[in-house]
Design a protein that fits this description.
Pfam families: UstYa. Belongs to the ustYa family. The chain is mainly α. The chain has one domain. The chain is 36% helix and 7% strand. 15% of the residues are buried.
């Protein structure tokens, strides 16, 4: 049992724990030559440097998906009328399925006793903090922030968060100083894609 699920924890404490998981490090920017040497497929261009593209770190993307699917389930259970993009949820579920089947953990878990199967079992894990530190290095930080639970309609706004030490901050600031900002999450006219889950 953890802060993310415990039978004695309040819903608000668990909600706060899940919401505190920051997935903004998901987007990184890689130099074209590096991407080619690593045999990565072409990707969306990074808006602040024409020699770089945007890539998503799979594990962080998976965590974003897990947060989204969990929020949709909890919201539905509580009768919250908040809309969720069902196609996004399907995308997330299929991505999580693929990753589980591709990297299936073969650690034997004891048979569950009152929904506690594997609780307290020792596991060898990767260093999550090290992954986040690598993803947010100034040379590959994508200046990216987003809301796990809403669909951005003006996606360039998600790249308006270059940290002070970023080599791209001056380009990002100049662009938005000239063009101004838009609401990243303004409602789309086409509401067919957004359905109440």
């Amino acid at each position: 049992m953890t802060e993310y699920w415990h039978p004695n924890a309040s819903d608000s404490d668990m909600e706060a724990a899940w919401d505190a998981i920051n997935t903004n490090a998901m987007a990184i920017t890689l130099e074209d030559g590096f991407a080619k040497r690593m045999s990565l497929p072409p990707s969306t261009r990074f808006p602040w440097d024409t020699e770089r593209s945007i890539y998503y770190i799979k594990g962080i993307h998976d965590l974003h998906c897990l947060k989204l699917v969990r929020k949709a389930i909890v919201s539905k259970h509580k009768g919250d009328p908040r809309p969720f993009n069902l196609l996004h949820i399907y995308h997330c579920l299929d991505g999580l399925r693929q990753d589980i089947m591709c990297t299936a953990d073969d650690t034997p878990m004891p048979a569950p006793v009152a929904h506690q199967g594997g609780d307290g079992q020792l596991r060898r894990c990767r260093d999550w903090d090290k992954l986040i530190s690598w993803a947010t290095r100034p040379d590959q930080h994508a200046c990216y922030e987003f809301d796990d639970y809403r669909e951005a309609t003006n996606t360039l706004e998600n790249f308006a968060f270059c940290p002070p030490e970023s080599p791209y901050r001056k380009f990002q600031e100049a662009y938005f100083q000239y063009h101004g900002h838009k609401d990243a999450y303004e409602q789309s006219v086409d509401r067919e894609e957004i359905v109440v889950f």
